[in-house]
Please model this.
Amino acid sequence: MQKGGEMNETIWKFQIETTDTQFVQMPKDATILCVQVQNGLGVCLWAQVDPSQPKENRCIEIFGTGHAIITANRRYVGTYQLSGGMLVFHAFERLSN
Model:
């Protein structure tokens, strides 16, 4: 916390894989902002974090266009394209019940 009760937050970048399910460790209560392909790094996820918070695992799931998805307990994060737009994927955060 900063003076006056303001939180000292920043934006962090996390590299993720194009795989069905993965866990990303980030500070507790981080706000996931977006997912995009960054030149040279592959797929990245950005989140607004309070670095002083303890870390927790967040479940990220990736679905290809046309693949079946159950939307219950999931929050859409973003869409990204690979292979010049020939492959399109959609990232969701799996929420706990």
User: Anything to note?
Assistant: The chain has a mean pLDDT of 92.
